Amino acid sequence: MTDMLTHTSEHDALPTVDNRIRLAVREVRETAFRALYAAGVSSGEAGAAADTVTAMQLHARTGIDTLLDTLDRLESTNSPAGVTLSRNSAADVVDHSARSGLLSGPLAVDLALVRSRPVLLSGIDDHEAADWYALRAASRSGATLWLVALDDDGCQTNATVVTAAGDMHRDVAVTTAFECGAATDRGTLVWTAPFAADASRPVHTADERETRYRHAVSYGVFVDTAKWSRAYALGRRFLVPEANHD
Question: Which of 34, 47, 222, 243 is surrounded by the fewest CB atoms within 10 Å?
Fold first, then answer.
């Protein structure tokens, strides 16, 4: 595995295929953590987000894209990343200043697991990052989680469902009753509810993900070279030189 501190000197020695570079799984996780932490994200948030980035890169090849998009959002905000919790008649509301499912998804999922009402990720209708965090949380908690985007009128579309068995189902018809427009805001609703296991074929299963993870640990994971170079450069801001002492 490539040592993060000697990445620059070893970069050219790593195999590349079609403008992709092969990396150790650990490198993806560490670089994501460092880049987010250097951007002002707390250690706990950065750790959860780095785990999600790694899972997304391994199983959907979208982790680094999501990381860079989140960093761009953080860069464009005029204030430090922060979160506001509120409540309306239908749901608890999580509003993150960076408007990123990668950062606010974990909080919404954790709240949904301990509360008996839906949680709304305000303004976030692309919930892929929250899906991947929810998949891990559902496996650990033994719960089933639904994540569904609301349109501009607050009406539901099809959902992603993650189960305690470690399966992810997409484009599931929403069966839980929820008043259209009740959330009063566009975003993604997260809640716990039963799910018929045979309703749809999962797009990801626990066995498939375990097989892919073991393969990636042994042989590495491919990432677009240009995108990786940018992510790595942002992660290097984490490494602050020691002050000189006389």
Answer: 243
